[in-house]
Amino acid sequence: MTDFFKDIPPIRFEGTESDTEFAFRHYDPSETLGCKTMAEHLRFSVAYWHSFAWEGGDPFGGQTFERPWFGDTMDAAKMKADAAFEMFRILGQPFFCFHDVDVRPEGETFAESLSNLEEITDYLGQKMDETGTRLLWGTANMFTHRRWMSGAATNPDPDVYAYAAATVKSCMDATKKLGGANYVLWGGREGYETLLNTDLKREREQAGRFLNAVVDYKKKIGFEGAILLEPKPQEPSKHQYDYDVATVYGFLKEFGLENEVQMNIEQGHAILAGHSFEHELAMAAAFGILGSIDMNRNDYQSGWDTDQFPNNVPEVALAYYEVLRAGGFVSGGTNFDAKLRRQSLDAEDLILAHVGGMDTCARGFKAAWAMLEDGSLEEARVARYAGYDSSDVLGQDLGTLYERVLEENINPSPRSGRQERLENLVNRFV
């Protein structure tokens, strides 16, 4: 056991007038919007890796955090789980997410690592039964260990491909055993550093074969959750095959997986791809593959993935607006794939970072809900394309349209897109 969070009280909703530091001002889990509570809408989740496994390093410096559970033993792994579920209790978090390496020590062999995973899976299951906290998704870390330096499914060594397959199988088994709502694959090193030693066609085909095998195994074991892919353009690789939502959808179509796999979309990754978060969410919704989100932010003055807690309500509101337009979460949720700054050393910092993130999300979500309820944005969108409702132009060929333009002397006058009006409208809500 650990007293790491000693004297930190459970976080309660106290409203906007509260001056209590350890309290929610905007997130009331029991507040109802439509037919769901805020807890059911947002489905908050803690990222095990950033909150409990990360040691505080960055590309230019090593460990700054000192945690009593840091270590490569099963005792340390169980102490980490004790601390994690204590934090879930304090925050009232309904979900958590993990990689295999976050929760168990690395063994000398795959068999030893598997034994460690199976043992800690049973322990996590006991903690889940005690607290009611559920698993939003599980995944495999196939990017940290040196064996993955040239990728996992896309690795030029078939033994690494086999090891990756065995790793994913073990993590899917653990996720199913714990009742996980989803299983995520993030290709952290599924890319290349240089084209001089890379066969792009072969590596893409390997990745497609691997993902098909994952879907086949999901069906074999009767896993009812969604399989999610998480796009990211670069970092650590120079270029990654899962660059953004549109790229991934093309990949899924190529390998016949567009009806089998959905997206887990991260705000920080969207920014690295040169997009906004809401753009990536809207693209996924348009393709019918919006599954879940990793909520964080990047520092706009840094060129890498800083994974900071969200604090920008207008940005969050626009993101949740797209989630709501798509019908809201089904199996997915809001996972805080965010970490403390490496100077934020205290237990209180870890709690308050999540409190602030949850309040920011709640404010943004309620603004998004109000915008959708108001309907003005959607009315403007519908009106902009209304001409197509009474037109047959999309069913005619080029020659027919050519003759029509000549015969009817069509000479269109441009119409305002009214962007500033719509931006002003959004600002009424945020």
From TrEMBL:
<feature type="binding site">
    <location>
        <position position="294"/>
    </location>
    <ligand>
        <name>Mg(2+) 1</name>
    </ligand>
</feature>
<keyword id="KW-0859">Xylose metabolism</keyword>
<keyword id="KW-0119">Carbohydrate metabolism</keyword>
<protein>
    <recommendedName>
        <fullName>Xylose isomerase</fullName>
        <ecNumber>5.3.1.5</ecNumber>
    </recommendedName>
</protein>
<dbReference type="GO" id="GO:0005737">
    <property type="term" value="C:cytoplasm"/>
</dbReference>
<dbReference type="InterPro" id="IPR001998">
    <property type="entry name" value="Xylose_isomerase"/>
</dbReference>
<feature type="binding site">
    <location>
        <position position="305"/>
    </location>
    <ligand>
        <name>Mg(2+) 2</name>
    </ligand>
</feature>
<feature type="binding site">
    <location>
        <position position="269"/>
    </location>
    <ligand>
        <name>Mg(2+) 2</name>
    </ligand>
</feature>
<dbReference type="GO" id="GO:0009045">
    <property type="term" value="F:xylose isomerase activity"/>
</dbReference>
<dbReference type="InterPro" id="IPR036237">
    <property type="entry name" value="Xyl_isomerase-like_sf"/>
</dbReference>
<feature type="binding site">
    <location>
        <position position="230"/>
    </location>
    <ligand>
        <name>Mg(2+) 1</name>
    </ligand>
</feature>
<dbReference type="GO" id="GO:0000287">
    <property type="term" value="F:magnesium ion binding"/>
</dbReference>
<feature type="binding site">
    <location>
        <position position="266"/>
    </location>
    <ligand>
        <name>Mg(2+) 1</name>
    </ligand>
</feature>
<keyword id="KW-0963">Cytoplasm</keyword>
<feature type="active site">
    <location>
        <position position="102"/>
    </location>
</feature>
<comment type="subunit">
    <text>Homotetramer.</text>
</comment>
<keyword id="KW-0460">Magnesium</keyword>
<keyword id="KW-0479">Metal-binding</keyword>
<comment type="similarity">
    <text>Belongs to the xylose isomerase family.</text>
</comment>
<feature type="active site">
    <location>
        <position position="99"/>
    </location>
</feature>
<dbReference type="InterPro" id="IPR013452">
    <property type="entry name" value="Xylose_isom_bac"/>
</dbReference>
<dbReference type="GO" id="GO:0042732">
    <property type="term" value="P:D-xylose metabolic process"/>
</dbReference>
<keyword id="KW-0413">Isomerase</keyword>
<feature type="binding site">
    <location>
        <position position="307"/>
    </location>
    <ligand>
        <name>Mg(2+) 2</name>
    </ligand>
</feature>
<feature type="binding site">
    <location>
        <position position="266"/>
    </location>
    <ligand>
        <name>Mg(2+) 2</name>
    </ligand>
</feature>
<feature type="binding site">
    <location>
        <position position="337"/>
    </location>
    <ligand>
        <name>Mg(2+) 1</name>
    </ligand>
</feature>
